[in-house]
Each structure stands twice: as structure tokens, then as C-alpha cells.
Amino acid sequence: MATPLVVSEVAKSFTMHLRDGVRRPVVANVSFSVKAGECVVLGGPSGVGKSSILKMLYGNYGVDEGQILMDHDGKLVNLATAEPRTVLEVRRTTLGYVSQFLRVVPRVSALDIVAEPLQARGTPLEEARAHAAELLSKLNLPRELWSLPPATFSGGEQQRVNIARGFITDHKILLLDEPTASLDAKNRAVVVEMIAEKKAKGTALIGIFHDEEVRDAVADRILDVSLFSPRKAAA
Amino acid sequence: MSTLPLLKVNDVSKFYGSRIGCRNVSFELYPGEVLAIVGESGSGKTTLLSCLSTRLMPTSGIVEYHMRDGQYRDLARMGEAERRFLMRTDWGFVHQNPAEGLRMTVSAGANVGERLMAVGDRHYGNIRATASDWLERVEIGVDRIDDQPRAFSGGMRQRLQIARNLVTSPRLVFMDEPTGGLDVSVQARLLDLVRGLVHDLGLAAIIVTHDLAVARLLSHRMMVMKDGAVIEQGLTDRVLDDPREPYTQLLVSSILQV
Ligand SMILES: Nc1ncnc2c1ncn2[C@@H]1O[C@H](COP(=O)(O)OP(=O)(O)OP(=O)(O)O)[C@@H](O)[C@H]1O
Ligand SMILES: Nc1ncnc2c1ncn2[C@@H]1O[C@H](COP(=O)(O)OP(=O)(O)OP(=O)(O)O)[C@@H](O)[C@H]1O
Ligand SMILES: [Mg+2]
Ligand SMILES: [Mg+2]
Questions:
Q1: Is residue B124 part of a domain?
Q2: What ipTM does the predicted assembly reach?
Q3: Nearest C-alpha to atom 25 of ligand 2 is from which residue?
Q4: pTM of the model
């Protein structure tokens, strides 16, 4: 089987036109790959570019140079240059993402927000909802919240909805940006267990975890992002 | 992903005398894709939408549409009757002002039914049943079916306009500021409705909006216009999270959070 994710010589900088066009290099020469069943954790100090790398992998940030190759249904796709509709297609079937904060959609219930990615892949609504309910109860989200839109939920409740939404599909690649940051110990342990299950199923995971205990429990490998600092690359 | 584009837009410009409406716009739209067009007032959004939907003739450039028979047709070369048929059946056009898209002096049911008759439905019972089904889908009480839209609130009129446009299962819908004059809670409801319908029906849509949150919620792709030209385009998330052009950065930074 092909390696699910290969990142090769990726570079990223921001040009801030509102601040006299200052150019801020973030990372350069980012190269790594992630195998099926492996969890790679991005490490390094604040501001080093961990989230920026995840956002490039998901297509939210543009890529200046290099390639992001994903095995999408047996075809190799370079996400760094893919058309928007290809990126969306890859997200639908291959690439999942748990962001740091849930983006709430007005008037849609927590249960349906979680069920949606499955439904988008053709699972009938009731079946998708049943699966969503399973995940929400596993994550201890009080049942009376399931039918409500999460706009008024607490940070930790919203995050659990977000995690359930990210974990509900069997995407081959899963990106995790601090999924446990606003959770209590009990729910952190649930997420650690869910990550272990994904690994056992052969998912390739790339994550950012500030919590050392969680990181040690899930990481097969820690990638120090300061190795990709643009200054180092230039030297 | 082997599907063909529904709309092919090649180097379209529109001048009003010496005044630029829009210039050198090219893109393709695929079935099921929702494209948002954003930009400041006077940047050419409505002009472009009008050129695409044959409400205006471009000064130069070509707009081709993938007909149901599989052929691409240059819209400018299409006969008037054929174009009107396309507009009434295969396309929808949702105006910012519902009064422009509705017949204000016929009932809500007739507003929806009219479009069905345009595609050849002649059975009164069917038409009425489909119309009431659609009123329900856009959350207008079926007991209002015989009321004229004049008696409706702004939000209801806008929902009726959407029902009128979607009842014929169009493949492409144009919307110009669909949530424009509505208050925020009504907007949220309408957006939720549009989002659901676009998703369920697999529609392609081009939505003009000045509201980046609307674009984020509804669109897959985004085009940013300034002075008549498209200055930046791409995946909606990318344009909003990592804007490149000075004007797009200004646009994104001037709102709180999208
Ligand atoms: N959209 C953006 N526009 C401009 N600069 C950005 C943008 N996103 C990130 N940056 C800059 O890129 C650098 C890396 O940021 P990033 O968020 O990737 O860091 P991080 O390693 O995730 O940090 P933390 O651990 O604090 O979350 C920072 O200097 C940040 O200011
Ligand atoms: N019929 C017309 N005759 C002359 N100039 C026109 C005409 N329609 C539009 N314009 C001009 O073309 C330019 C683009 O107008 P357009 O209506 O497309 O802008 P817009 O982006 O839709 O703006 P808004 O957000 O205010 O609706 C403007 O400078 C406008 O004054
Ligand atoms: Mg970060
Ligand atoms: Mg306009």
C-alpha cells in the first residue's frame, strides 16, 4: 500500500500587505512522511509553525513551494497545487481534520453536525445519526445537548462535538490540532483511546498536543518543527 | 471527478460606454459547486452575474453552458426563446429584492406553480400539491398558499422566491445578495435553508454577497472582485484564512471572525 502522506520540501511565508508588505517566513524545507497506523506529533515552541503545517496539509493555507502528496483512492494527489474541487473531494473521502475550535453552523444540531461527514459519503441519515450518537455518548456529551445547535455549548462540549465529527468517518489521514486542549482528564483519556483505535485501523495521524501525557500516550514519533525554521534551511 | 463543467466563462468583459462593469473574467463552474463572489460596492459583481445569466450581453468574451443534451452552447448565440426557456427551467435567479423575482399580485401558490407550468406541467392538482410541498420546505405555512406575497414579511418573500426558483429542479442558481435586506435572525434561517437545499439537490450556485461569513458558510470556492476584475480566487477556506492580495487582506481583517 502507498504511504498515505508524503510532504516534500514545503515552504511557507506570509506577506502582510497591511504592514508595509512585511514578509514573514514561517517554515522551509518541510519534509516528512506518515505511514498507515502511525501517529506523528508536531513539536516545538509556540509560533514555530505547527498549526501552519496542519493548515497547509488541509488546504486552508496556500503552499509557496514543495509538494504535499496524498494517496487518494489509490491515486496520488498533490494538495499543494490541487484545484479547489479536488481538495474538497480529498477532504470528503481521504483527509479529516479536527480543528482547535468548532465552527458552528446556525440551527444545525450537535448530532447532525457530527453525522454530516458520514452522510456526505453516502451513509443514510438514520445510520449516520446512530453512529454519531455512539461517538457522542462515548465522549460523555450529555444526551440532552444532542438535539441543540452547539453555539451555546461550553468550550469542552463544543470540542467534543468537533472530535466526534472528525472521528466519525474512516478517512485514511487525520489531522488533529490540539483536540484535547479544553477537555478534562476523563475525556482526554477517551480521546487517547479513540486515537489508538484509529491507529489500529491503519489511519495515518498527524497531531499537535501540548499536553505531555497525551502526547506520550499517542505519539509514535515527535517531529521537531524548529528543524524547518527558515533560518536553518537557509544556512 | 471526470464530470464536465456546467459553465465555462472565458475572458468576459462588460463596458457601460467607457465605464468598466467587469473585465477579463474567466473561470469554470462544476455541477454541485457553490461559488461566492465578494468585493466592495461597484466592483462589478452584479454586472458579472448579469453577463453570466444572459440578463446582460457581455461586451466581449464567451459564456458557454453545458445543456442537458450534453452539448455546450454559447449563450450569446442562443435564440431569445431558447434562452428564456433555459432561464425558466434549468436556471434560477434569486434577486436581492424579492419584488423583482416574484409576481406580487398573484398568490404564493401561483408564484411557485407558474414555473412548473413553464416546464410543461398542466395538471392542476399536481401543481398545487408540489407548490404546497415547496412552501413547506421553505417554512411557509401551507395555509398561506392563497395569499399574495404583498402580505408576506421580507424573510417570507425571500423564502418564497427561493421556492419559486428551485421548484423546477434547476441545475444552476444565481443569487445576488440573497440575505441582503433581512435582519440577522431571519438571515440565519434563510442561510440554513439555502445551505440544506443546495446540498440536498446538488445544485451549482453563484452567490454574490458582501458578507464573508455567508461566503464561508455556503460556498466551496470564492472570487474576490475589485474595480471590475477578479483579483483573487480559490478554495473559500484558503482565501479567507490565507488571503494573498492586499485588498483581500484588508477585506478579511476588517471583520471580526469568519
Ligand atoms: N494567517 C496568518 N497570517 C499571518 N501570519 C500567520 C498566519 N498564521 C500564522 N502566522 C504566523 O506564522 C507563525 C507560525 O504560527 P503557527 O500558528 O503555525 O504556530 P504554532 O507552532 O502552531 O504555535 P502555537 O503552539 O502557539 O499554536 C507565527 O509567527 C504566526 O504569527
Ligand atoms: N447600467 C449601467 N450603466 C452604467 N454604469 C453601470 C450600470 N450598471 C453598473 N454600472 C457601473 O458598473 C460598475 C459595477 O457595478 P455593479 O452593479 O456590477 O457593482 P456591484 O459590485 O454589484 O456593487 P454593489 O455591491 O453595490 O451591488 C459600477 O461602477 C457601476 O456604477
Ligand atoms: Mg498552533
Ligand atoms: Mg450589486
A1: yes
A2: 0.92
A3: B41
A4: 0.92
